[in-house]
């Protein structure tokens, strides 16, 4: 940074335009260098979503999976940054951002987190991947009757979840029964 400032000081200041540009240039350099210092921290709801998704994945077992599961997060997700950030605590999965069903087919996803994708689109993707064990989680499927196995529900400042047992039974993964009991007892906030 000192080298950049010294180089700027050598700019001739006889031109009035350069005199106006100099402070602006310094401000831009400062902003670029200090950007990581001002990075936004996660909100409470972001932390709740990440904690819930991380917990669900942590209590899920994939047959023949040796390493940490890969969570493909659709870019349409409102919580994509929270789910892909390692801020706060370590993740129970490896996050990968996807933009389309084609991206999902080209990636080895063990779990998929849907954003704005409709339940019918979720079912379509499930059918394309039906031979591979994949856990499906959605943030925009309040009914949770078709599509994802786990559906996040947002009420004011709380995040809860519902379980689609039919979808879960077809997913090829096993989830700890305690997680399923949480969904039934509504004590999973």
The end-to-end span amounts to 46 Å
Name the assembly state.
single chain
Mean pLDDT: 82
Number of strands: 8
| Proportion of residues in β-strands | 15-25%
- Across the major sheet, the strand order is 3-2-4-5-6-7
CATH class of the largest domain: Alpha Beta
Number of domains: 2
Question: Per the principal axes of the C-alpha atoms, what is the gross shape?
Answer: globular
Helix content: 40-55%
The main β sheet shows up as:
6 strands, mixed
How are helices and strands ordered from N to C? HHHEEHEHEHEEEHEH
CATH topology of the largest domain: Aspartate Aminotransferase, domain 2
Q: Are there runs of 5+ residues with pLDDT below 50, and where? A: 24-28, 30-39
Whole-number radius of gyration?
A: 23 Å
- Helix/strand class: alpha/beta
User: What is the second-level CATH architecture of the largest domain?
Assistant: 3-Layer(aba) Sandwich
């Amino acid at each position: 940074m000192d080298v950049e400032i010294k180089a700027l000081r050598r700019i001739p200041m006889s031109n009035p335009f350069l005199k106006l540009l100099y402070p602006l240039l310094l401000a831009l350099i400062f902003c670029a260098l200090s950007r990581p210092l001002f990075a936004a921290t996660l909100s409470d709801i972001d932390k709740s979503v990440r904690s819930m998704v991380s917990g669900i994945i942590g209590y899920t077992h994939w047959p023949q999976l040796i390493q940490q599961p890969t969570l493909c997060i659709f870019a349409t997700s409102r919580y994509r940054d929270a789910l892909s950030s390692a801020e706060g605590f370590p993740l129970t999965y490896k996050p990968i951002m996807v933009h389309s069903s084609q991206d999902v087919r080209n990636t080895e996803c063990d779990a998929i987190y849907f954003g704005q994708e409709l339940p019918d689109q979720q079912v379509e993707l499930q059918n394309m991947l039906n031979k591979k064990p994949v856990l499906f989680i959605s943030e925009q499927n309040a009914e949770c009757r078709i599509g994802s196995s786990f559906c996040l529900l947002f009420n004011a400042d709380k995040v809860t979840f519902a379980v689609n047992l039919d979808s879960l039974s077809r997913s090829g993964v096993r989830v700890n029964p305690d997680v399923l009991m949480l969904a039934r007892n509504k004590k999973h906030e």
